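Let us practice reading a record.
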Amino acid sequence: MQPFELTLTEAAAAIRTKELSPSELTHSVLERITAVDARLGAYVSVVGDAARHAAAQAEREIAAGRHRGPLHGVPFGLKDLIDVAGLPTTASSRVRADHMAEADSTVAARLFEAGAVLVGKTHTHEFAYGLTTPQSRNAWDHGRVAGGSSGGSAVAVAAGAATFALGTDTGGSIRVPAALNGLVGLKPTYGLLPRHGVTPLSWSLDHVGPLTRTVQDAALVLAALTGHDSRDPASLRTGPASDVLPADGGLRGLRVGVPATYYFERVTPEVEAAVRGAIERLRELGAELVEVDIPMARYVLATHWGLMVPEASAYHEWTMRSVPGLYGSDIRVLLEAGELVTAGDYLRAQRARTLMRQEWAQVRERVDVIAAPTVPMTAAMAGQESVEWQDGTVEGVSDAYVRLSAPANITGMPSLTLPVGRDGAGLPIGMQLMGAPLAEATLLRVGQAYEAAYGAPAVPAAVLA
């Protein structure tokens, strides 16, 4: 096994026992980037010299007995919305061609404090305003979309071109590409991870979170990033709640909500079969399955778009007036549309969000976790604009991908996706676990229990030519 093939947990253990050095691991990952990224398009930029220097520094610190923890000496990728001092933050847009970050974002600073080694900035759908990331290609089938908007981060981790990565999630932008590339992706509780120094898409929906190859890896990254930051007005002062499960690692007493409505409507048969099979395995591990109805389902997309579109347009107001031609045509149309949303419509979306949060809270009183498909279908073909469902309805690809992930953004509850199978073409299928605000520990424990009992080995994609 090559070092780039190791999960974060495996790499951390090998570094701690000095079976592997940070320099060896970083060199392996950089070589992997050189070998595969021309075909995958995961990275906007690679900082090889800086990464080697940081790895050597980590190696010296560890040798001197100053081991900072499990991220020390581990290479990672950072979505190019997230500032690192002295590096461009392009947001994969010509609008930001000359932008240079003056200071580290909070999450980048915390990773550097933990000793992690940045290898590069990863592609996003322009300004995170999309679900496909067209610059990047799916790690398992290059003719298909990577998912978005954190597509570059997902592809890098899936291909072994980063040991872990950070992304952002406004309507599924961590969980969608994670599911489509066979990864674990965590959208934490709204406000749990600070967003200072992160280019916004929609201030009331944006989250930062990790993309990793295992659930344990995600837990390690989350622990390094959690903590209040007064520079983000939404940043929480309260940390994650304690786990509701017994310490023996089983799922006895866990109540898993199984949606009777919404989440299994307009999904492919292979996705439904894989996720229902995974839910049944949770029962085999000791969980109790409880049927639940999803509240206000018909208003999900309208509420999500009613919040996101005007907030995005407000952020881009000045550049849309000064340099509109630098935006991609798809993004420019969305930003122009946002300028037509009335204050009344925006307020109605905010009221709908309040009602939705109240209704979801009542559902969560009956269960500890809700389990459902992350996305309704596996990775679409590149350039595919719509999908026709068995009932004859036609849906845009982006609408299809955001449909099942948006409720967690609207309500602010945490959501974890993990791989639970593959379709007939070998493409990954993801299941998401949703819980009460600050219930990350429970979601991670459930994910770890499933992964330990039924998960496939977390090996990187082969990246065939």
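A brief commentary: Residues 81 and 91 are 5 Å apart (CA to CA).
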